[in-house]
Amino acid sequence: MITSQTQDIIPEKWYNIVPDLPEPLAPPIDNSSDRSSIELLNSLLPREVLRQEFTFNRYERIPDEVREIYAQIGRPTPLFRARRLEDFLGYRGKIFVKFEGATATGSHKINTAVAQAYYAGKEGIEEVVTETGAGQWGTATALAATMNGIRSTVFMVKVSYEQKPLRKKIMSLYGARVYASPSTETPFGRSVLEKEPGHPGSLGIAISEATEYALEHGIRYLVGSVMNAVLTHQSVIGLETQKQLELMGEEANVLIGCVGGGSNFGGFTYPFIGQGKEVEAIASTAEEVPKLSRGEFRYDRMDTAGVLPSVKMYSLGADFVPKKIYAGGLRYHGASPSLSVLVKNGIVRPEEVGEAEVIEALQVFARTQGIVAAPESGHAIASLIRYCRAHREERKNIVVNVSGHGLLDLSIFDRVGI
Amino acid sequence: MITSQTQDIIPEKWYNIVPDLPEPLAPPIDNSSDRSSIELLNSLLPREVLRQEFTFNRYERIPDEVREIYAQIGRPTPLFRARRLEDFLGYRGKIFVKFEGATATGSHKINTAVAQAYYAGKEGIEEVVTETGAGQWGTATALAATMNGIRSTVFMVKVSYEQKPLRKKIMSLYGARVYASPSTETPFGRSVLEKEPGHPGSLGIAISEATEYALEHGIRYLVGSVMNAVLTHQSVIGLETQKQLELMGEEANVLIGCVGGGSNFGGFTYPFIGQGKEVEAIASTAEEVPKLSRGEFRYDRMDTAGVLPSVKMYSLGADFVPKKIYAGGLRYHGASPSLSVLVKNGIVRPEEVGEAEVIEALQVFARTQGIVAAPESGHAIASLIRYCRAHREERKNIVVNVSGHGLLDLSIFDRVGI
Question: Which portions of this protein are annotated as coiled-coil regions (chains A, B) (predicted)?
């Protein structure tokens, strides 16, 4: 939400870390000889997104229309000093929170959805399509499409569709057509349902349906994380943070975020890391999905179905099936190639956090700062608390990115009787 | 959420309209000769709240501690120009939105809860208690208590307790003890349950339980609306709006808000009205609860049970039982005495809006501005849309107060198949 005095905090350019990485990114490769999934990207993604995916430009101008939508959906998001949390932890330095939960859709996902939908619309495309698991990405796509004056279709994993009716409602409210996947809308969905009418769905199936639907209807497919272009769009988080800190007369020493595919983490930290700032960067992952600390750095499929190309990244294997954990957004088997390179080179330090610690962190954050954070963001808060407890006497400035609010995920507290 | 550049928008003083009303307020009176409910206030309310209730001071200094908490819970809330809504409506003037849904608890209620809990704590009281229907007020009380380092107890109308488990969860997360009312915690609750073990509860019963509990434990009771002190605390909304408009180089011509008890409406409009600004003020109420347009201006009980005094106000009768409408926060039978005086004197114009129009307004607002507003606030948005459609060629600046977000009230869209 914009007020005149904060408008100029929204950056004019996105930052792309690719040219500043300590080693070159390995190129994506096809994962089958039947059809080229790299060629397929030409028909799937908006042209400008594809160009940004492979560019070595350090900066990309944010179109005026996208900046204007950023302002309407709540950018700049707040950066505030969490004094009560500092007091509670007895930490002698300062803690700052960048709160992406303050966007209209409640998470950082909207930052790239708005850009991708804009580029699709610019090409004359009248509809975009995507898949969604927990619902955050689908919600962002739905609003981004509406705000760019185009339609949207979302294939939502059936089990989530049934368990998260509120998410489905918000997407519909924004004007999206939402199908439980597997659906009867695509040949692939129909083939799955033929074999198993009660199939609960999976992200892999939903991706296959969404991409098939895109190709069949000649529309564009939006990607929620992992890819370079997505992380570039998300750099708006870190760039705003830098400007906000500067206005406060502060510098960042430690940056903490959570990692699903890596987009909120990359968007938040890369402007600092890439510009050679001396920062400690901590990437918090779920104990149950420890791709960065226990995955292998190798070529692997981006999606289970293998529709998209394979990329070189830390991965637990595309067929890795994580436990049905409380933080759906962190279940992804791999991590963005650029983030993987930074971890491999010791520039980003991964850390695993388990459920009990996350729930405690969410409670502490709610009671000290009043914010009900998303379970995914709870990992970043848990890593922050861990850091402060281990370094109480330090006087560093820690900035934590709280990627979303958790108002629609309160069921995670069932287990502790809240 | 605060950023350094916006901190000074939070006012240093609250504004109290009482000395600026066009006619004096009639004093509250006891509604039975058995016990004086006015005297009872001395034991129920924090002393400073009671003083503010009866003061003729035009301004009250906001304690530094309260201002600091205001900053932590999201003040100043955003004021933004709703350009997409303007375009959609083809309105040639400007529309500004003040968004109280951006506070940590998602509505304006926290503005007074923080102040009341602060004054209770200042007196050495270690716990506060209140009742809640839909849950917004209980949530605000729970967080306000926590942030002031004291405990809280909330009696939640049983039917809401069962239908709105998320609200109960948030209150617990903030550290409140939440009881379904009627409960076994108070003599009154036990007497109700004895007669009817499956009693669904009511706001009247919950108020009786909360006040009884306060007296029994020697703690303080917090009031959510209607009273002068509450509207004074809520003036932070209008005072911020004035400063934000000034920073944008704009003036307000039309102010629109919704009315339950009158606290968000009064808080928003009074700083403009009381300072003699020429503004058109529109108070939007639910068609099913038309107290301002079809109520009687007379002494009536503030609460069904008659624990609190009677005041002179527009009322449908304390025993009026509204339909179980979609906007729980607007079901109150009366309206704040000061607001009633302003309506009676033609300074505030009441307007009734029905469910279909509200649902359409919420959809329009979500699709144009991305915000899912509360059903209560949907009334204000509906009145805004009505105004713009009737005055398309006007070039007035309209400011609408969106008092809360509706993320936890999405079920209202069930009826239209969303």
Answer: none
